[in-house]
C-alpha cells in the first residue's frame, strides 16, 4: 500500500507547477484545453510541461508532449470528480489542508534577508569554540521597569568591582545567582566544587542567543556590560577562543582524585600515574592500561571509550587537552574535578561545510529564540508597507481599565466600558479598543508579571504582531502567485490521493471477490514451468555407480529415505555424494538432457562424475497460485481499476483540445 507522504510527494513532482486558468485568455496566450468550463492556456500548460521535463530539447518531442498531455487531462478530470463528490468540504480534508498550509506559509511570514543573515551568522560561529565565565543577576523576562532597573544597577556594581581589579572567579563565587558558581553539598555524596562562573567551552546554539552573541562579539579578557536574557543580566568574560573541535570520540583512563589532605592517597596516585606514563612509552596498549588501572568502571569495559561529544559536554580541562591531540595520540595526565585522566583521541568529525550544514542550521534556528528576530523585522516591514497607525490615547484608556486581577488571569471587561474607539489601523483594517480588550481576556492565564503596565504593554505588542501576521496570511494567495500555485498543488494533491485511494488502491485490496475474479482471468499469463523434485547421487567410479543403482532401487522400493540411502552406499565404500533440489526446465543442462519421469534414471556421465537421478515428483506446467503472485495481482488489478476509472471520467466530463494551439506548441 502506498504511503500518503510518498504519493503526495509524487503528485507534487508530476504536477508540480500547475498554473491555473484565467477567466479569459488574451490573444497572445490562447486556450489550449477546456475541461468542464475550466480553461487552461498555452502558457499555463507549457509551464507545467517544462518543469516536469528537465531534459529540455530545443524542439518539443511530439511523442513526449502527447503522453504528458494525456496525463495532465487525467489529473484534471480526477480533481474535478473529487470536487463534484464534495471531498474538498469534508472536515478531515479541511483539517489536513490547514495543517499543510501552516507549513507552507512559514517562508512567507518571515524576513528572508534577516533569516539569511542569521544562517550565515550561525555557520560562522560554528567554526569556533568559546570559553567564557559569567555572573548572573536574576530578573524575570517580564519584570516591571522598576525591578529591571534594580537588577541592572546591581549588575553594574558587580561589574565595577571586576573592572577595578578584583578576580572574576572570586566575585562570581560571592555574587552570582547561578548556583553552579558556588560549592554545593550533596546528600550522601562528596561536595561539588563550584565553577566560579566558568562555563567551559561552547559553540553556536549551546547558550541562549543574547548570551551567545555577547560572548562571540567580546574580545578575550574583556568584561562585557550586563547582557539581558530571559534569565536576567549576565556579566561575561571570554577567556579563550579556538577553532571548532567539532565532534570527537575519545577513550580515557581515570585515576580518582585523592582525598583532600590525605598525603598517602596523593602519593599512591602519583605513583600510579608515573607507572602508566612509563607503560605508554613502552607502547603497552591503551585498552590494557584502562582495564588494569582505570577507576571509571563503566567505560573501562569498552576500553575507556566514551560516546561522541562536543566541547560543551565535558569539563573545560578535559576538552582543552583534546584540542592539541592527533588521532590515536594519548595526552599527558589531565587534572579535572573528577581526578586524573589520560585521554586518547579515537576519531573526530570536523564541522561540515556551509552547503552540508545549511539544512540542519535552518532547523535549529527555527527552534531557537533567535528566530524571533526574523519575525520582528518582518512585522516592522509590514507596518511601513501597510501604513500602520496606533492611537496612544485609546491604548491608555484600555490600560486604565485593567487591574491586578489580570495578573492572576481573572480580569473581565467592565460591563459599562465603552471601547469603540479605533486603536489600530493598517491596510484598510480598523481595530477597536474592544478587539484589544478581548485579546487581553483570552490571553491572561499564562501571565507571569508583577506589574499591570508591563503586562498590558506585552499583550499589546503580541496582539499587534498577531493581527498583522493574520492579515498577511489571509492575502498570501493574492500577493504571492507562487504561494497560490503551491497551495493549490497541495490541495489538488490531497484530493487526488483521497479519491484514488477510494477508487483504486484500497479498493484493490478490499475487493476480494473482484481480486480473485481478476486473478482467474489473468493467471494464464503467469505460469509455473515444468519442474521436478530430484535427488542426484554422484560417483567417481562407474563400477561403484552400477552396484549402487541396484541398492538405490531396492531401498526406494522399501521406502528408505534418500539420506539413509546415501549412508548405506557409503558403508559399502561407494564414496557417494548427494545433491537435491527442485529443478525447472531450462535451469540445468544436465537435468534437461533426459526425459523427466518419476523414478530412478539410468547411469549418466556428467562433469567428471557418474550420476543416478531419482525424480521423486514431477510437476506439469500450471498457473502460479494466488498466494505466489498476490502482490503482482493487486498491482495489476489497481492498474486495471485506474484505466476503467479514467474511461468513465472521460465519458462523464466534457473536455476539448484546440488542435491549432496544440500544433503551435509543436512548431
Structure description:
- The chain is of the alpha+beta class and 667 residues long.
- The chain has five domains: 168 residues, Triger factor/SurA peptide-binding fold (Orthogonal Bundle); 116 residues, Chitinase A, domain 3 (Roll), CATH 3.10.50; 104 residues, Chitinase A, domain 3 (Roll); 89 residues, no CATH class; 97 residues, Chitinase A, domain 3 (Roll), CATH 3.10.50.
- The chain has 25 helices and 22 strands.
- The strands form seven sheets. Strands 16, 17, 18, 19 and 20 form a five-stranded antiparallel sheet that branches. Strands 6-3-8-7 form a four-stranded antiparallel sheet, with helices on both faces. It has a three-stranded antiparallel sheet with strand order 2-1-22.
Question: What is the element layout, followed by pairings?
Answer:
Blueprint: H1 4-14, E1 31-35, E2 38-41, H2 42-51, H3 62-84, H4 91-105, H5 112-126, E3 128-138, H6 145-163, H7 168-175, E4 184-186, E5 189-192, E6 198-202, H8 209-217, E7 227-229, E8 232-243, E9 247-256, H9 263-281, H10 286-293, H11 297-300, H12 316-323, E10 334-336, E11 339-349, H13 354-366, H14 371-385, E12 389-390, H15 392-401, E13 422-426, E14 429-432, H16 433-442, H17 452-474, H18 476-479, H19 481-510, H20 512-522, E15 527-528, E16 531-539, H21 542-557, H22 562-571, E17 577-584, H23 589-592, E18 599-600, E19 604-606, E20 609-619, E21 622-623, H24 630-652, E22 655-657, H25 659-666
Antiparallel strand pairs: 1-2, 1-22, 3-6, 3-8, 4-5, 7-8, 9-11, 10-11, 12-13, 13-14, 15-21, 16-17, 16-20, 18-20, 19-20
Amino acid at each position: 500500500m502506498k504511503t500518503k507522504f510518498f504519493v503526495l510527494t509524487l503528485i507534487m513532482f508530476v504536477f508540480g507547477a500547475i498554473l491555473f486558468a484565467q477567466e479569459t485568455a488574451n490573444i497572445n496566450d490562447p486556450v489550449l484545453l477546456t475541461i468542464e468550463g475550466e480553461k487552461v492556456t498555452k502558457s499555463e500548460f507549457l509551464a507545467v510541461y517544462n518543469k516536469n521535463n528537465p531534459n529540455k530539447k530545443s524542439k518539443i518531442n511530439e511523442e513526449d508532449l502527447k503522453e504528458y498531455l494525456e496525463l495532465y487531462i487525467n489529473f484534471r478530470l480526477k480533481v474535478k470528480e473529487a470536487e463534484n463528490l464534495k471531498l474538498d468540504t469534508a472536515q478531515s480534508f479541511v483539517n489536513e489542508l490547514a495543517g499543510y498550509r501552516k507549513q507552507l506559509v512559514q517562508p512567507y511570514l518571515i524576513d528572508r534577508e534577516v533569516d539569511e543573515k542569521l544562517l550565515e551568522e550561525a555557520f560562522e560561529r560554528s567554526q569556533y569554540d568559546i570559553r567564557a565565565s559569567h555572573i548572573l543577576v536574576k530578573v524575570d523576562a517580564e519584570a516591571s521597569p522598576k525591578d529591571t532597573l534594580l537588577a541592572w544597577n546591581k549588575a553594574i556594581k558587580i561589574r565595577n568591582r571586576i573592572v577595578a581589579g578584583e578576580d572574576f572567579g572570586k566575585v562570581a563565587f560571592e555574587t552570582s545567582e547561578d548556583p553552579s558558581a558556588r560549592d554545593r553539598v550533596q546528600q550522601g555524596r562528596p561536595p561539588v566544587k563550584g565553577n566560579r562562573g566558568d562555563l567551559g567551552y561552547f559553540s553556536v546554539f549551546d547558550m541562549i542567543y543574547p548570551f551567545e552573541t555577547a560572548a562571540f562579539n567580546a574580545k578575550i579578557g574583556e568584561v562585557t556590560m550586563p547582557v539581558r536574557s530571559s534569565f536576567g543580566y549576565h556579566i561575561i568574560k571570554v577567556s579563550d577562543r579556538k577553532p571548532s573541535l567539532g565532534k570527537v570520540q575519545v577513550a580515557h583512563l581515570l585515576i580518582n582524585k585523592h582525598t583532600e589532605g590525605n598525603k598517602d592517597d596523593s602519593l599512591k596516585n602519583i605513583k600510579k600515574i608515573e607507572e602508566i606514563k612509563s607503560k605508554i612509552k613502552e607502547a603497552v596498549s591503551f585498552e590494557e592500561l584502562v582495564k588494569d588501572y582505570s577507576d571509571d568502571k563503566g567505560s573501562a569495559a569498552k576500553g575507556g571509550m566514551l560516546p561522541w561529544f562536543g566541547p560543551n559536554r565535558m569539563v573545560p580541562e578535559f576538552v582543552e587537552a583534546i584540542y592539541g591531540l592527533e588521532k590515536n595520540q594519548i595526552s599527558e595526565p589531565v587534572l579535572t574535578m573528577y581526578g586524573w585522566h589520560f585521554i586518547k583521541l579515537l576519531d573526530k568529525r570536523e564541522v561540515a561545510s556551509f552547503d552540508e550544514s545549511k539544512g540542519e542550521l535552518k532547523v535549529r534556528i527555527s527552534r531557537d529564540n533567535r528566530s524571533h528576530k526574523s519575525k520582528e523585522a518582518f512585522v516592522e516591514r509590514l507596518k511601513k508597507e501597510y501604513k500602520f497607525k496606533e492611537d496612544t490615547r485609546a491604548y491608555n484608556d484600555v490600560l486604565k481599565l485593567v487591574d491586578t486581577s489580570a495578573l492572576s488571569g481573572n480580569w473581565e471587561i467592565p460591563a459599562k466600558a465603552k471601547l469603540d474607539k479605533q486603536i489600530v489601523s493598517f491596510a484598510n483594517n480598523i481595530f477597536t479598543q474592544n478587539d484589544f480588550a478581548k485579546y487581553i481576556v483570552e490571553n491572561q492565564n499564562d501571565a507571569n508579571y508583577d506589574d499591570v503596565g508591563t503586562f498590558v504593554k506585552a499583550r499589546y505588542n503580541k496582539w499587534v504582531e498577531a493581527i498583522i501576521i493574520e492579515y498577511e496570511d489571509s492575502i498570501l494567495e493574492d500577493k504571492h502567485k507562487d504561494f497560490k500555485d503551491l497551495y493549490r498543488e497541495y490541495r489538488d494533491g490531497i484530493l487526488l490521493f483521497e479519491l484514488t485511494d477510494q477508487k483504486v488502491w484500497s479498493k484493490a485490496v478490499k475487493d476480494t471477490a473482484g481480486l480473485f475474479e481478476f486473478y482467474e482471468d489473468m493467471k494464464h499469463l503467469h505460469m509455473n514451468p515444468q519442474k521436478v523434485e530430484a535427488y542426484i547421487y554422484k560417483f567417481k567410479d562407474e563400477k561403484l555407480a552400477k552396484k549402487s543403482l541396484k541398492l538405490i532401487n531396492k531401498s526406494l522400493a522399501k521406502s528408505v529415505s534418500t539420506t539413509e540411502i546415501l549412508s548405506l552406499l557409503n558403508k559399502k565404500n561407494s564414496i557417494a555424494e548427494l545433491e537435491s533440489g527442485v529443478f525447472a526446465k531450462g535451469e540445468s543442462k544436465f537435468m534437461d538432457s533426459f526425459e523427466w519421469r518419476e523414478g530412478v534414471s539410468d547411469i549418466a556421465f556428467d562433469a567428471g562424475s557418474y550420476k543416478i537421478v531419482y525424480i521423486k515428483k514431477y510437476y506439469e506446467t500450471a498457473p502460479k497460485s494466488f498466494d505466489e503472485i498476490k502482490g503482482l495481482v493487486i498491482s495489476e488489478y489497481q492498474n486495471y481499476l485506474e484505466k476503467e476509472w479514467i474511461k468513465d471520467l472521460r465519458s462523464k466530463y466534457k473536455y476539448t483540445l484546440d488542435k491549432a494551439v496544440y500544433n503551435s506548441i509543436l512548431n
